[in-house]
Amino acid sequence: MKTKTNNVDTVYGGSSQFSWLERDPRQVILFAGYPFSKDYNDDRGHINMLEDVRATKRLNLDDSDPKHTPATCYSCKSSDNPGLWAELGMEAYDKMSFNEMTPNINNTIGCANCHEAETMRLIVTNPALKEAFERQGKDWETFSRQEMRTVVCANCHVEYYFKGDGKYLTFPWDNGTTVVEISLIMKKRVSKIGCIQKLKPPCLRHSILNMNSSPRVPRTTTRVFPAQIVTCHTQATAPQNTLHTMCIVHCLMLNNLVVNAMRIQSLSLNV
């Protein structure tokens, strides 16, 4: 697979191995109080998933610590998962620790994460995705093949949280999948975490959003966002017409999907 050897650095990160915290130290401040302030390395493609997740400093492998890393963190890292979910059930899977699950995880992301073995048709394999649709009154089995080409990505590429002491993988889609609709769920459950004094109002979970923008954007710009204030800082030395816009979005973990980034831009971040 070319992703194993095609270690190219690009404007958007590419598949090279580097630390975002070293490349842009401001992100240490933006992620203050959140594990990404300890370690945030660029994603290098599916073939490197297991190697990278096992190497990150965000892991807490002390199972005697109540805050140890749960097996849930393997949910989007291996093609062994559909079989394990079928065998154990997701509840039992998520209750295990990362250490306990490691011997069962031997293969990185692959065909089994999106395809039915017998027919190779596109399917939902993640129970959390199936349950999220069910709470919306939707049946993924009724979706067209064209719709499934997008849906299968949501087996992994979505916003999520770990519910309860069992760290049960949950998608905050009960009100819908737009950023505003997701924020209604996240606002109810996100608790305050340690943040530096400079970030006010008191910082809640936040994300960094990379967006393309006009080079005429002011160095610092503020926009009113539903429920909170969003402050954006643009990188002074942006390549050509691409600016790296870093946004502290309080009360909200942004969806990884590009469509939701576009929704944010159209809703309030007119930058």
**Low-confidence runs of at least 5 consecutive residues:** 192-271
Order of helices and strands: HHHHHHHHEEHEEEH
Radius of gyration, taken over Cα atoms and rounded to an integer in Å: 19 Å
The strand count comes to: 5
Task: Classify the beta-strand content into a percent band.
Answer: 5-15%
The chain-level structural class is alpha+beta
Q: Output the strand order for the largest sheet.
A: 3-4-5
Structure summary:
This protein is of the alpha+beta class and 271 residues long.
Task: Tell me about this structure.
With 271 residues, the protein is α+β, with helices and mostly antiparallel strands. The chain has helices at residues 20-23, 26-30, 49-55, 81-88, 90-95, 98-101, 127-135, 145-151, 179-189, 258-267; strands at residues 161-163, 168-170, 220-225, 228-234, 245-249. The model is unreliable at 192-271 (pLDDT under 50).
Summarize the topology.
Layout: H1 20-23, H2 26-30, H3 49-55, H4 81-88, H5 90-95, H6 98-101, H7 127-135, H8 145-151, E1 161-163, E2 168-170, H9 179-189, E3 220-225, E4 228-234, E5 245-249, H10 258-267
Antiparallel strand pairs: 1-2, 3-4, 4-5
Characteristics:
10 helices, globular, two-stranded antiparallel sheet, 9% strand, disordered C terminus
